């Protein structure tokens, strides 16, 4: 999709997180293994300080095929392996509300774990969907009594399009209770191309990708939450409400223990290895298997060999997942997919969205099988309004990394943990009313020993 920041500013690392090896575990237990976990807790986790923000799924149709400079857009798309959604005629995005200014102005922004800043006010005349863009809201600095123009310019590029503008500071609030952050820095665009909404980046901020505290940093600094940790539950079709919980986890949206998957390379190593070539510190993990189970069958058919490992970017801002063309071709054959040679996109029958054909599963494995995320076909195939696309599309040859987008995330409950530099995974299994546990000063110890999912 168009969300994936390619321009990065390198700053020294200012804060050090714990590592998975620091977790207090039973003797001889590997921190990256799901084996030998403690017995299921008998007590109920106590609620505490957390901020819940509702998330909405939106189907976006491309109505205005405007992109940035052709050479730049093509080069950036090739580098990241994510093609403009104009090739697919549309896509799915997940939006949340932020409130800016005094009095507050509500803006809808796309949730993006692959970037790290808040941007608002795209140019709707040059948006891929001008109508959607106009309905998402705009920030008017002159209407706010607490606005400050920092006069510092910014420019950011994505796989197709991007923003350019000026940094401002103003009061920001979010979540169901509208918790305020005073004097928060964010980017206000006065020029953009292709992008049809603002975006809120939830990646690593100050000390890694920015020289100022981002929204996630400020939630900790202002004492709203204890650590830079948040959980994402997008869910599949008919699986309940989607949300993000900053500083907490809803243990009625998954079953059993969560499995920690190390961010690799570590954020510090990412800075050292990739900082000079424009890649930013992100949630990269190693995928160790990919398979699927056909509708009505029990046996899993593996698409990867033993010992397989591949670095993947977990990206809520990407409608599709992207992998090596050979793996995608093998999967496409199993779905009887048709390759559109002009678009280089695999299309499949829309029968996979409902009925008997929708009961198959995709299987994404991590930690050599200690956790496998199962995604229903109906959540894996993307409905483009009468035409349906395979949930994994081929990354361009030479792409810097592969992507686990929404066609993976809909099957998972995920905790993004900047304290332990880990992503905690479980299968998305809603089982009742919301039950949120606070994640305190040592979120990893709680997730490993205390918080057990289920009703």
UniProtKB/TrEMBL annotation:
Keywords: Hydrolase, Protease, Signal. Belongs to the peptidase A1 family. Residues 1-21 form the signal peptide. This is Acid protease. The keyword Signal applies. Residues 30-49 are annotated as: Disordered. It holds the Pfam family Asp. InterPro entries: Aspartic_peptidase_A1 (IPR001461), PEPTIDASE_A1 (IPR033121), Peptidase_aspartic_dom_sf (IPR021109). GO terms for biological process: proteolysis. Residues 94-426 form the Peptidase A1 domain. The keyword Hydrolase applies. One of its GO terms (molecular function) is peptidase activity. It comes from Apiospora saccharicola.
């Amino acid at each position: 999709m168009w969300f994936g920041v390619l321009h990065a500013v390198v700053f020294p690392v200012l804060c050090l997180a714990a590592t998975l090896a620091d977790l207090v575990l039973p003797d001889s237990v590997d921190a990256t293994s799901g084996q030998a976990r403690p017995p299921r807790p008998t007590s109920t986790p106590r609620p505490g300080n957390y901020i819940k923000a509702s998330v909405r799924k939106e189907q976006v149709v491309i109505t205005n095929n405007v992109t940035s400079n052709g050479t730049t857009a093509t080069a950036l798309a090739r580098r990241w392996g994510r093609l403009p959604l104009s090739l697919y005629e549309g896509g799915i995005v997940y939006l949340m509300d932020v409130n800016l200014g005094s009095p507050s102005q509500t803006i809808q922004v796309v949730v993006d774990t692959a970037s790290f800043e808040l941007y608002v006010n795209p140019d709707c005349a040059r948006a891929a969907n001008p109508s959607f863009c106009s309905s998402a809201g705009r920030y008017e600095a002159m209407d706010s009594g607490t606005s400050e123009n920092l006069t510092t310019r910014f420019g950011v590029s994505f796989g197709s399009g991007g923003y350019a503008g000026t940094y401002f500071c103003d009061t920001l609030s979010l979540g169901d209770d509208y918790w305020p952050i005073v004097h928060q820095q964010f980017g206000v665009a006065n020029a953009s191309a292709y992008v049809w909404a603002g975006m809120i980046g939830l990646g690593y901020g100050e000390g890694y990708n920015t020289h100022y505290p981002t929204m996630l940093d400020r939630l900790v600094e202002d004492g709203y939450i204890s650590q830079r940790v948040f959980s994402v539950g997008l869910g599949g079709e008919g699986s309940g409400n989607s949300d993000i919980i900053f500083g907490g986890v809803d243990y009625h949206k998954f079953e059993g223990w969560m499995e920690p998957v190390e961010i690799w390379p570590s954020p510090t190593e990412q800075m050292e290895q990739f900082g000079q070539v424009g890649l930013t510190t992100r949630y990269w993990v190693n995928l160790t298997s990919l398979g699927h189970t056909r509708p009505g069958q029990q046996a899993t058919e593996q698409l990867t060999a033993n010992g397989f490992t591949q670095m993947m970017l977990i990206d809520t801002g990407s409608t599709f997942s992207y992998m090596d063309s050979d793996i995608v071709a093998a999967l496409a054959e199993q779905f009887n997919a048709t390759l559109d040679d002009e678009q280089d996109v695999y299309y499949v029958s829309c029968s996979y969205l409902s009925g008997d054909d929708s009961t198959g599963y995709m299987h994404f494995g991590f930690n050599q099988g200690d956790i496998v995320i199962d995604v229903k076909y109906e959540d894996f195939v993307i409905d483009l309004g009468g035409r349906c696309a395979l949930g994994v599309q081929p990354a361009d040859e030479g792409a810097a990394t592969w992507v686990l987008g929404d066609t993976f995330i809909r099957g998972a409950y995920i905790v993004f943990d900047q304290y332990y530099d880990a992503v905690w995974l479980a299968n998305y299994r809603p089982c009742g009313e919301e039950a949120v546990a606070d994640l305190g000063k040592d979120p990893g110890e709680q997730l490993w020993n205390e918080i057990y999912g289920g009703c």
